[in-house]
Specification:
alpha/beta; Pyruvate Kinase, Chain: A, domain 1; five-stranded mixed sheet; 5 strands; membrane; hydrolase activity
Length: about 300
């Protein structure tokens, strides 16, 4: 019985150590969420004004740009899947991967081939384990994304969209580009979301522009075509950066919730093991007392028989 008590005490000690780790990770995630939200809010004015500028140019220039032209018979689509680099975030990565799988099945049902582009080690490991080809992957900055990473991703996706089949560079041309990421709604709600990025559908935020919203008038210099050539890639990069920032905030919120749940479970386990250890210790004491009393009674009976 004493061995059982020692085992439970060892479990209590290891659970307490685990609780310290999960508690620390919970606090770190909570502190980083605020910074992630501030970064997303700071990027919002630039994205909003860039969207208005692109909307105005696309509306008043009457220019058919390659990034806004719908292909007649789309045959191939690219999907950027935004996951995390690290685990311990609950169902964060698995939820966005499920959303990506649904989109893959939808596109394949429409007769389109799918190219996968991955952000985050979890997504890369998921597809490599299933031996599914990945065109390109970006890792190492899922919880603290930078605009340089977004610009690199945007340039690569635009290159694939504009590429012709059988080009000398060996880049596979695609007719559509989609992004699957996790939208940050609140600390308690993060929603896996799939959006089509190319061909461009110029939108502002998540809501359609109101009827009273008047777009600014611009004079194009040197020409509307060259203005669109400069603005549209920046617009694509800004939307990718927005998706990365949203995903980072969602990842940290999911990690905080998962670590809080782990800490609470550790508390419950410690209480359970402490109660069982106390019961085992009391049972051991009771048994020892019973053995002593039994021994005393046996001795008394032996003395009485000798008399």
């Amino acid at each position: 019985m004493a061995l059982s008590v020692r085992e439970y005490r060892a479990r209590i000690k290891s659970t307490e150590s685990m609780k310290k780790i999960t508690r620390a990770m919970e606090l770190i995630a909570a502190s980083r969420i605020i910074k992630a939200q501030q970064r997303a809010q700071a990027a919002a004015p630039y994205a909003r004004e860039l969207t208005r500028a692109v909307s105005a140019v696309a509306t008043f220039s009457n220019v058919d740009h390659a990034l806004t032209t719908e292909p007649e018979n789309p045959q191939r689509a690219a999907i950027l899947v935004v996951t995390s680099d690290r685990g311990l975030a609950g169902a964060y990565s698995s939820s966005v991967l499920k959303e990506a799988e649904r989109l893959v099945e939808k596109l394949k049902g429409e007769g389109k081939d799918v190219d996968l582009y991955i952000s985050g080690r979890k997504g890369e490991a998921y597809y490599k384990f299933r031996q599914r080809p990945i065109v390109e992957a970006w890792t190492g900055s899922s919880d603290q994304p930078t605009y340089d990473v977004a610009a690199d991703i945007g340039a690569r996706l635009i290159e694939a969209f504009l590429a012709e089949e059988g080009n000398e560079a060996g880049v596979a041309g695609v007719d559509e580009v989609h992004v699957v990421y996790t939208r940050f709604r609140s600390m308690l709600s993060q929603e896996p979301t799939a959006v089509r990025l190319l061909p461009l559908e110029v939108v502002e935020g998540t809501e359609a522009p109101s009827q009273g919203d008047v777009l600014p008038l611009y004079e194009f210099e040197p020409s509307p075509q060259e203005v669109l050539d400069s603005l549209l890639p920046r617009y694509v990069q800004s939307r990718i950066f927005f998706a990365l920032l949203q995903a980072a905030a969602s990842e940290l919120a999911a990690r905080q919730k998962a670590m809080k749940s782990a800490t609470d479970n550790a508390d419950e386990l410690i209480k359970k093991y402490t109660r069982i250890a106390n019961q085992a210790r009391q049972a051991g004491i009771t048994q020892e007392i019973s053995e002593i009393v039994g021994g005393v009674n046996a001795l008394a009976d032996a003395n009485a028989s000798q008399d």
